Amino acid sequence: MAIDVNTSLLKRDRAHIWHPYSAMNSDQPLYPVVSAEGVRLKLEDGRELVDGMSSWWCAIHGYNHPVMNQALGSQLADMAHVMFGGLTHLPAVALAEKLVALTPEPLETVFFSDSGSVAVEVAMKMAIQYWHASGQTRKQHFLTIRGGYHGDTFGAMSVCDPVTGMHSLFSEVLTQQFFVDTPPCRFGDPCADTDIGPLLQQLEKQGDRIAAIILEPIVQGAGGMRFYSADYLRKVRILCDRFNVLLIHDEIATGFGRTGKLFACEHAGVTADIMCVGKALTGGYLSLAATLTTADISDTISNGDPGLFMHGPTFMANPLACAAGLASIDLLTNSPWQKRIADIEQALVAGLQPCSDFAWVSDVRVLGAIGVVELVKPVDMRSVQPQFVAAGVWVRPFGKLVYLMPPYITGALDLQQLTTAVVEVVNGCGQQ
Predict the structure, then answer these.
(1) Is 250 a catalytic residue?
(2) Residue 403 catalytic?
(3) Whole-angstrom distance, CA of residue 267 vs CA of residue 260
(4) Could you tell me which of 76, 31, 115 has the C-alpha nearest to residue 316?
(5) 279 catalytic, yes or no?
(6) 11 is catalytic
(7) Pick the catalytic residue: 13, 21, 205, 380?
(8) Could you give all domains of the chain from N- to C-terminal order, each with its CATH number?
(9) pLDDT along the chain (432 residues), means of 10
(10) DSSP category for residue 231
């Protein structure tokens, strides 16, 4: 099929490309980007937008960062890719060492993959293989809280919310897991016995079938942007130990500083048996994720039947992606990131506060560099998205949520522009 390169980019896109959670005949607005610099996206028509999304939470250093560019250029001159089966290389080894040093003890071993969904798949397979190698073959299922989101592949979908989640269409073919209601105790509040009670009851009934509890620590991301009690997370850890169940922390959205801690589990002072990281791992430059676990789990799997872990992505530990991960982590840890997150949090609290006065807003909440305005009814993306673009910002609501997760380098004036746009657009939602 001949392609006319003089046809607009938008028409060429519409002819052939699926976008996330869209139809080929979608009339949702679409905006061609030609470049990105700092916290700004430049559109094909010349307009510039302040990015409030960090490109789905991963571009924590902004765009076109010279340190990141240099790291990728240097690695490209040596090796863009090499298979990880039977071979190894310095970027992967150095990144694994750095991740082990950064994450809470006793996480010691690292399995690299190429996306957050796959990192969750790996974690779930690790848990099942661990119990199989331990002789407890009934432990094939997972327990989690409703309102979660863990990815779009089949294993990950099975532990997303089965009713209100995006994957309910596949409920008949997904493995049936165990769920309890989202804990009502909010971040900063204690966790009462009634809050943790449903989880305890499921463990009492099904503990011999449950391989692991899987949770997004503190912040439930794409499932609803809820912030729950750190005390709940502490009590989950205690119950896992009591009932001989593994604990998986999905830190893909929360890892690398987003909540004000390097990892969200640090708010509770607990460690998982298996942890998934991704998104901000490479600063948004390349897709890379990792699943970390303990020496006990990796040794048990390795010494059991069949004597190896049954997973191996083609682009596992891609050298370019690992080099990006090393550069991104160094940029973060060598920066005053705690102050930057605290400044963003303060700006979001002040800037979004007016939304609390709108009758059509049910909640406004902020934690670290996450600001959420939850409406009573879902927003109309066809009208809301162009309003944000007209205000010079890139904000991508979903469902009832209008939220901000800006790059960590976002300054005061850009934060003000973002929050002002949110307040104005949300105010307009009440007139619709």
Answers:
(1) yes
(2) no
(3) 9
(4) 115
(5) yes
(6) no
(7) 21
(8) 9-64+336-429 (3.90.1150.10), 79-333 (3.40.640.10)
(9) 69 92 87 97 97 98 98 98 98 98 97 97 98 97 97 96 82 94 97 98 98 98 96 98 98 98 98 98 98 98 95 97 98 98 98 98 98 96 95 96 98 98 96 72
(10) H
